[in-house]
Amino acid sequence: MATDAGVALSSSQLETSSPAATVDTKGCTIDASEFQQKYDDLPAWDIGRPQPEFVNIADHLHGSILDVGCGTGENALFFAERGHTVTGVDFLAGPIETAQRKNSERGCDVTFKQHDALKLSQLNEKFDNVLDSGLLHSFSNDDLQQYVAGLAAVTHPGSKLFVLCFSELEPGSKGPRRLSETAIRELFADNWKFESMTRTRFIVREDTQANYSDDGPHAWFFVAERV
Ligand SMILES: C[S@@+](CC[C@H](N)C(=O)[O-])C[C@H]1O[C@@H](n2cnc3c(N)ncnc32)[C@H](O)[C@@H]1O
């Protein structure tokens, strides 16, 4: 099935095999300079509040939290305000500084630090929960494998993973690569048990809405438990 192949293919295969490429349009990791360019402007995802999917599951989340690719920190701060111990990491200094400023303004106690999500094991810490809002779909196939290995290193059996990522239902090629449900399930087949996989939308800034589907880019929101 075309949508299943994405994660297993190399970048070069993705460029040449058209059925898979219609789903996984980007075989390259989005690097720091590309993200920095987005932050130099106003990024589509920086909506000044948590993504609703994370708000919806808040009552089901217990214990410490790592927010990977936390950006300017809205999801991390939301959970800190609910009493969780939260660490937020992002590889860019700018968004981390903004997150730290919001942290003091709101009287929160999140640990925000600059750290590469592809080196999660170097955090030398284990978390009860990991949040990923918009990072997973930024990686090439090889980096996806490395990222998922890092997620295992910062979790323990019973830890929960909450991910919001672009789905193959989003037409066109604006934004990051699209991931299919099957590709996601393959990626997390070892070490994780899926609890839910929901079709949903990203909320994006109103001024960027025209780049995506009405009601926001199609997305997957999934919850998995570390086994
Ligand atoms: C789409 S944004 C989402 C930001 C935030 N989670 C939110 O929902 O507003 C993805 C974030 O991941 C960060 N990022 C991308 N690659 C990363 C990496 N290798 N290590 C750490 N952060 C990364 C980017 O700088 C950016 O802030």
TrEMBL record:
Any GO MF annotation of the entry: methyltransferase activity
SUPFAM superfamilies (UniProt xref): S-adenosyl-L-methionine-dependent methyltransferases
Signal peptide: none
Disordered: annotated segments: 1-22
UniProt key word Nucleotidyltransferase: no
Keywords: Methyltransferase, Transferase
Methyltransferase domain segment(s): 65-158
Pfam families found in the cross-reference section: Methyltransf_25
InterPro entries tied to this protein: Methyltransf_25, SAM-dependent_MTases_sf
GO terms under biological process: methylation
Ranges of compositional bias, category Polar residues: 9-20
PANTHER family the UniProt entry points to: JUVENILE HORMONE ACID O-METHYLTRANSFERASE, METHYLTRANSFERASE
Protein name: Class I SAM-dependent methyltransferase
Organism: Aporhodopirellula aestuarii
